[in-house]
């Protein structure tokens, strides 16, 4: 197979990412410019630019290993070695100590879910401090995830994979953060659970939350996303609105190797 | 006289009590070590020095401020804990990104410096510290005579161990501590000030050592070397219990104290090494320790 066309963005693309989306973004909730990040000496992100408006759900696509997880970790500040600019509501996050990032409104659901084995389900759920009003209450979350209520006294890691993913999401919803970074929430889960997670994301949208989602599952992503970014080699190489997805499907599938 | 396995019951119970008292100190000390190791991943070689400091602070409070045992029981752990917190903030916290060996070496050097300074000023001989008035005397339990102070040590250390365990297992602070022990970065990303938690935890571990030191003062005297004598055994306790296991540290502390006592009755020659023999066997059979999670 010849080189995927998406791997060759116009050279000026990195500097004007918003010109690529169909709707021009008036006011970004999250504005990332020239984000570089390293694992030790290994340079993993090469100038990532992206914008997310308040209330949007944006999906980040890309093959395995192109830097999607790294992008979320660099935005969050979990990856300390980074340069560039990450502005949340105009406030610069680079240089902000990691434990103050949540209070600025960023919530993180890691790819590996990060459920604590030595905490019960309920302790896991209530662990992250509430940072702002408007989050889900524990009662609301238990209504949304009845399994978690049933098993609230079990150790967190005794839950099934799907339940652990629900718990990882529920736990951040309680805190009242405005922007959620969600890394491959459907990875390895059964279709019914994937549908359930889709409903949850739609419910989050209804409540005005903003979501940056990393996802490999197109069908799932197209149900929830307003816009897409495509990553390759540690850069954003394309961006388009959800309405353009059907027309691009074939090209995307080829570019993403799915 | 009643005999068990050819040993007078009186002697057996007497040594078991000595074992239980030693075990109380092992438990208190290994509890602090386990908490520190669990969260900071640092083997706190200064733990014995902090125990010794607790005893010396009690001694100095009495000598220079007229503050007796009960005041020292509160103040000495507080002072040793604050000193520990300061050391974590100023020095240990700068070593977290390096190989854990640096933390170990730093605390080892710190222990040598503290113990050396006290030996320089006070010599190696122990200073006596009187049993508090309220706990002098002894009571006859029928099968043996129990000095009141020793009974108090057993009860108080058990109470402190249980309270600490409950605080870790049942409170919000404990949940932060357990979670940060598993994945400090994620807990920090949730907005918990983990660096402060580390400082507090090191201070807490040091304070527990200081508390053990105050309780030990009337029994073992106050000497600059009291910490280095006991800490090697306590490390063995932590290894047998399983590095970082809180419950393991406490249970193993009492258990090995009793084993030591029993050995004194049946085979006194081995009483000084029995704990290390057990450690070697446990390491061979269950390298993660009796209560450790096998990864
Ligand atoms: N902890 C790590 N240490 C070193 N390199 C890493 C680490 N995590 C990821 N990488 C590397 O960074 C690149 C991007 O990885 P990642 O962001 O996980 O990709 P994606 O999420 O898109 O699959 C890959 O080349 C990967 O090998
Ligand atoms: Mg990934």
UniProtKB/TrEMBL annotation, chain A:
UniProt cross-references to Pfam families, sorted A to Z: ABC_tran
Domain of life: Bacteria
Record flagged with keyword Glycosyltransferase: no
Matching PROSITE patterns: ABC_TRANSPORTER_1, ABC_TRANSPORTER_2
Single GO BP term: L-amino acid transport
Domain ABC transporter: 30-258
Lineage: Bacteria, Pseudomonadati, Pseudomonadota, Alphaproteobacteria, Hyphomicrobiales
Species per Swiss-Prot/TrEMBL record: Methylopila capsulata
Region named Disordered: 1-22
Record flagged with keyword Transport: yes
Alphabetically ordered keywords of this record: Amino-acid transport, ATP-binding, Nucleotide-binding, Transport
Matching InterPro entries: AAA+_ATPase, ABC_transporter-like_ATP-bd, ABC_transporter-like_CS, BCAA_Transport_ATP-bd_LivF, P-loop_NTPase
UniProt cross-references to Gene3D superfamilies, sorted A to Z: P-loop containing nucleotide triphosphate hydrolases
Family: Belongs to the ABC transporter superfamily.
Name of protein: ABC transporter ATP-binding protein
A GO term for molecular function: branched-chain amino acid transmembrane transporter activity
UniProtKB/TrEMBL annotation, chain B:
Record carries keyword Transmembrane: yes
Localization of this protein: Cell membrane
InterPro entries in UniProt: ABC_transp_permease, BCAA_transport_permease
Membrane topology, from the record: Multi-pass membrane protein
Record field: transmembrane: 12-39, 51-67, 101-122, 149-168, 189-218, 230-258, 270-289
Broad class of where this protein is predominantly found: membrane
Keywords carried by this UniProt record: Amino-acid transport, Cell membrane, Membrane, Transmembrane, Transmembrane helix, Transport
Family: Belongs to the binding-protein-dependent transport system permease family. LivHM subfamily.
Entry protein name: Branched-chain amino acid transport system permease protein
Organism this protein belongs to: Methylopila capsulata
């Amino acid at each position: 197979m010849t080189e995927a066309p998406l791997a060759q963005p116009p050279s000026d693309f990195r500097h004007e990412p918003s010109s690529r989306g169909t709707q021009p973004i008036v006011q970004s909730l999250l504005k990332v410019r020239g984000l570089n990040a390293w694992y030790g000496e290994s340079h993993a992100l090469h100038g990532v630019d992206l914008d997310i408006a308040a209330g949007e759900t944006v999906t980040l696509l890309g093959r395995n290993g192109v830097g999607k997880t790294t992008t979320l970790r660099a935005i969050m500040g979990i990856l300390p070695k980074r340069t560039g600019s990450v502005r949340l509501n105009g406030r610069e996050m680079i240089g902000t100590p990691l434990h103050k990032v949540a209070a600025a409104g960023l919530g993180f659901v890691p790819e590996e879910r990060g459920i604590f084995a030595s905490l019960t389900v309920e302790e896991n759920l209530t662990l992250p401090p509430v940072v702002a009003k408007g989050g889900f209450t524990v009662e609301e979350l238990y209504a949304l995830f009845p399994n978690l209520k049933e098993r609230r006294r079990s150790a967190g890691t005794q839950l099934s994979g799907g339940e652990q993913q629900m718990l990882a999401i529920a736990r951040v919803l309680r805190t009242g953060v405005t922007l959620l970074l969600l890394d491959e929430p459907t990875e390895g889960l059964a279709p019914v659970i994937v549908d359930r997670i889709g409903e949850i994301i739609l419910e989050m949208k209804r409540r005005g939350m903003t979501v940056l989602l990393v996802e490999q599952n197109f069908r799932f992503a197209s149900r929830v996303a307003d816009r897409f970014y495509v990553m390759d080699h540690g850069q954003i190489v394309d961006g388009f609105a959800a309405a353009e997805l059907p027309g691009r499907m074939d090209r995307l599938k080829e570019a993403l190797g799915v | 006289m009643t005999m068990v396995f050819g040993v007078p019951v009186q002697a057996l119970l007497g040594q078991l009590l000595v074992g239980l008292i030693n075990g109380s100190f092992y438990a208190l000390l290994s509890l602090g070590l386990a908490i520190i190791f669990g969260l900071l991943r640092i083997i706190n070689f200064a733990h014995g020095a902090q125990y010794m400091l607790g005893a010396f602070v009690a001694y100095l409070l009495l000598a220079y401020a007229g503050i007796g045992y009960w005041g020292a029981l509160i103040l000495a752990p507080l002072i040793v804990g604050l000193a520990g917190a300061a050391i974590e903030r100023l020095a240990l916290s700068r070593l977290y990104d390096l190989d854990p060996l640096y933390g170990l070496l730093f605390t080892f050097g710190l222990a040598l410096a503290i113990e050396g300074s006290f030996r320089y000023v006070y010599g190696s001989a122990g200073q006596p510290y009187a049993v508090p008035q309220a706990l002098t005397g002894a009571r006859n339990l029928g099968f043996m005579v129990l000095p009141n102070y020793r009974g108090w040590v057993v009860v108080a250390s058990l109470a402190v161990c249980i309270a600490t365990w409950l605080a870790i297992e049942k409170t919000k602070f404990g949940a932060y501590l357990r979670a940060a022990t598993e994945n400090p970065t994620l807990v920090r990303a949730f907005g918990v000030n983990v660096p402060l938690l580390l400082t507090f935890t090191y201070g807490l571990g040091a304070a527990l050592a200081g508390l053990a030191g105050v309780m030990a003062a009337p029994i073992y005297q106050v000497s600059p070397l009291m910490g280095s004598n006991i800490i090697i055994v306590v490390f063995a306790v932590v290894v047998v219990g399983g590095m970082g296991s809180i419950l393991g540290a406490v249970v193993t502390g009492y258990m090995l104290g009793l084993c030591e006592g029993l050995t004194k009755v049946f085979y006194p020659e081995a009483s000084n090494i029995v704990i290390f023999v057990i450690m070697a066997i446990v390491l061979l059979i269950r390298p993660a320790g009796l209560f450790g999670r096998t990864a």
